[in-house]
Amino acid sequence: MSISQAIEKIEARYAHQPEFIQAVKEVAITIAPLYDSHPEYDAFKVFERLVEPDRVMGFRINWENDKGVVQVNRGWRVQFSNALGPYKGGIRFHPTVNQSVLKFLGFEQIFKNALTGLPMGGAKGGSDFDPKGKSDNEIRRFCYAFMRELHPYINKDTDVPAGDIGVSGREISYMFAMYKNLTREYGGVLTGKGVGFGGSLMRTEATGYGAVYFLENMLTAQNERIDGKRVLVSGAGNVSLHAAEKAHMLGGVVVTVSDSQGTLYDGAGLNQEKINWLKAQKAKSQPLADYVAVYGGEWFAGQKPWHIKGDIAIPSATQNEVNEEDAKLMVENGIKYVVEGANMPLTADAIDHIRLHRVHYAPGKAANAGGVAVSGLEMSQNSVRQYKTFEEIDARLKVIMKNIHDGAAEASEKYHQTDKGYIDYMTGANIVGFKRVADALVAYGILN
Ligand code: NDP
Ligand code: 8G0
Q1: Section 295-303 average pLDDT
Q2: In a 3-state reduction of DSSP, which class is residue 256?
Q3: Per the confidence metrics, is the pTM higher than 0.85?
Q4: From residue 218, how far is each of 172, 338, 359, 367, 415 by CA, in Å?
């Protein structure tokens, strides 16, 4: 079955899962030249196998709110592929979570994890639970209840979840505690644990820092430097604020962050004090807009950052946050580099538009792989029951991001021959990630 036939099949079967189909098509259109030159992939139906998860577990979560009223949420774990290692990927708590979103994230995770070069398969999980406005006691009760349902499916050697949108250190601690309580096992079943009880140094910073390391490699490839460049960041969560922090540390002028309420613009650029203030403000779930009264700048209620002039955009909030109109604004406003901190923040039309205008584009599976890479390092530290230093992890992260960059650039050179001088990171990353997984599947025969 050819790739296009496999696409037709999933479009018919999963018409109600638009994000999933979007993610699959994005990979499909770029791997054709590789696929066609490897007849064994078609013979083993590699693509048709990879677009169907190994399994999806769905469950109900009952919990009690502070008023003693029973609440019912839904949860899932999508175990997509363990061809290269234990299933690995985050857990998202957000009202928009459904099977389509988790399948797109799990599918992307397969190739991202392959790109890191570490032994990890792809998975994603989560719940439609909305943490906004919940008390700490409610969060704790929900996390315990969620893990009570999830725990039969995970283990340090089979499936290792982590955080994601709405799930950070606090939630991981509650879930880890419940897992430990139910199984009596103290192991690396979750990553992103607190430093001091199994967590790795630098896991919190890894995704944002890694994205900026990737950006540095992109700039170097064009004989450019980050110093003095204006950087637009969207989001104000874990990825965004650490991307902003590293960009600032390296001399970039970060002029925006945003959240679901609007965009904050500071033409003078963020510094470490301002970033610390933003971290503290978001940790207290307080409005970003308060910044203006403290440090100046401007608040654009209900708006995204893309109407502002800049050189580099790092969208780091959520999927499909950048549509074609936003992409047009980016091009008009001088953006030359788009680095995806989030997973699939650009719609297909947005990607087409910026690529048409030769904007250098790093897809999430390459640019944000630093997070899961350091999760992989957390797993190995847990296995040998030893900790590495911040400097050791940082050095490993830099090497991993450079390897992903160089591998994608090399594959682009080989397979994207239409526009010399433009590095097609999208094609390159998809080809490198896909090839690693496909070769394993062929070696395994017809078992996953
Ligand atoms: P956080 O929950 O820490 O932050 C998410 C940020 O994005 C918040 O500022 C939030 O705004 C905003 N946001 C979320 N959903 C929406 C929405 N529907 N509309 C507008 N704004 C929204 O999440 P992370 O920083 O961890 O994750 C951000 C992205 O990066 C996700 O795509 C995630 O999958 C991806 N990613 C994360 C990694 C990690 O290590 N954490 C690793 C690799 C990728 P508000 O605060 O107002 O809700
Ligand atoms: O550490 C992880 O496994 C993890 C957590 C959150 C997001 C991601 C991702 O790569 O999207 C990975």
Answers
A1: 98
A2: strand
A3: yes
A4: 33, 10, 11, 10, 18
